[in-house]
Amino acid sequence: MRRTTCVIVGLIVGIGCGDDDALGVDAGPSDAATAADAPSFADGGREDAALTADASDERDGGGGREDAGNEDAGPAPMLGEVLPAGSCSAGVPGARCERYEVRGCPGTNDVFVNLRIRGSGGPTVLLGSGTGGGSFLADSSAGADRLVADLVAAGFTVVERAWDNRGGWMATTESTGTVATQACRLASLVAFLARDDVVCAHGHSGGSLELSAALAFHDIDRSLTAASFSGGPIHDLTDVCWRGDDGGDWQMTCERHARDMMSGCSPTCLTRQFARINAAYGEANPCGGRDAAGSDPAAEDLLLLDADSPTGERARTTLATTLQLVIGQRECRGDLGPSAVEWAARLRAAGTPVLPDIVVEGAPHNVFASGGNPFIVQFMREHCR
After folding, report:
1. 332: nearest Cα among 261, 380, 238
2. In what order do the strands lie in the sheet with 78-87?
3. Which of 89, 135, 187, 261 is a plausible cystine mate for 140, CB 3.0–4.6 Å?
4. Which is nearest to 38 in space by CA: 102, 112, 115?
5. Residue 3 placed within a domain
6. What confidence tens digit (pLDDT) does each residue in 241-294 have?
7. What mean pLDDT do residues 335-362 have?
8. What is the pLDDT of residues 63-103, one digit of tens each?
């Protein structure tokens, strides 16, 4: 497959921008540019519906994509099985909804996922919504309906995923769950969709952490051609959960990235997502909350979070997938924007083809309604093929 990458410094791009959005605000999708003939992933020219998604299968063989050559990558992890489970409500004209069960991911419970499909014939772009991913992206982020329409118009098959699981992808009923084990569900879904198609993805906010963890721990770069990210991801859970209290220099690094994103920006560099991150850990609460406020983190918490971080020692950081970050400039005020920039920088330094960051001038956490869509579409046009 022909690939093109750029190696230049990050970009700040000015486009007309809207107001800040709140996570989870619903925005009804547009009826325009939808395709009634959206293909089924369980029939109609696609291969057998059930797939045991072992990342070490023949997708790495002749004619496939090259392995990234990550020196510290161990044996390819076992993924789950994706089985058809009927239909679901698409909620918009011109789309269809297919329901699947993701079963057998090690260390976590089985879940159902609804896929809303629009467009047909072109490469597949899988869209992941924020927080726990329990809703379709175009239903939960203002302006994302326009992104779907633009991707369909560009010839892509657009698949929005919505996890039918209390707490979404991040939650588990198992006592030993982690962010990495939960990300097996998305990795299994990507491998399933990539059986005979080019597959790319975009993850927003909580969906960006999900996508980055799937890449870091489940070898889906063997199935995923290109991926873009907005509203995240988090580079290191120990930094954002404990503000670098483990002896790191995250505060200084966070402030530097924030100033690079917007001159004079004063970030808080303090996450307010503790409960959501802790949801991935079953009975444990390692993210900034095991002890009384202000206390030092427990050693076992730091070990658990480091092992679960997308750029931690256990993570694969040399990947074959072409990546790009599209981040709102106003994200510099919290820790999510600087953390995402640090994530991209670490993977770029490890040899992953990470394109220059797009910092959308004046845009908030939700870049879809604030000028980010054209950059996501352009990235997919150039690299999702």
Report:
1. 261
2. 11-14, 358-361, 322-328, 224-230, 199-204, 124-128, 157-164, 111-118, 96-103, 78-87, 51-54
3. 135
4. 115
5. no
6. 876 554 458 888 999 999 999 999 988 876 555 667 888 887 778 887 554 455
7. 96
8. 333 444 444 445 567 899 999 999 999 999 999 999 999 99
Buried b or exposed e, range 261-295, using 16+ CB within 10 angstroms = bbeebebebebebeebbbbbbbebbbbbeeeeeee
Exposure b/e, 147-168, CB count within 10 A at least 16 = b: bbbbbbebebbbbbbbbebebb
What is the reported pLDDT for 76? Answer: 63
Q: What is the mean pLDDT of residues 188-203?
A: 96
Count of domains forming the chain:
1
In a domain, 373, yes or no: yes
Q: At what angle do helices 250-261 and 336-349 cross, to 10 degrees?
A: 100
Token pair recorded at residue 56: 């070490």
Contact 159, 127 (CB under 8 A): yes
Residue among 302, 315, 379 at smallest CA distance from 352: 315
Rounded Cα–Cα distance for residues 288 and 5 (Å): 38
Structural domain for 121, as ranges:
11-383
CB 103, CB 184: distance < 8 Å: no
pTM of the entire predicted model = 0.84
Q: In a 3-state reduction of DSSP, which class is residue 10?
A: coil
Report DSSP letters for 227-254, one per residue: EEEES---S-HHHHHHTTTTT--HHHHH
Strand partners, 125: 158, 200
DSSP per-residue codes, 159-188: EEEEEESTTGGG--SSTT--HHHHTHHHHH
- Domain assignment present for residue 121? The answer is yes
Amino acid 27: pLDDT: 32
For the residues 14-38, what does the mean pLDDT come to?
35
Note if the bond before 77 is cis, omega within 30 degrees: no
What pLDDT is stored for residue 14 in this prediction? 47
- Of 205, 179, 173, give the one whose Cα is nearest residue 305: 179
For residue 4, is it within any domain? no
Q: Whose structure tokens read 């993570």?
A: 315
Give the pLDDT band (50/70/90) at residue 45.
very low
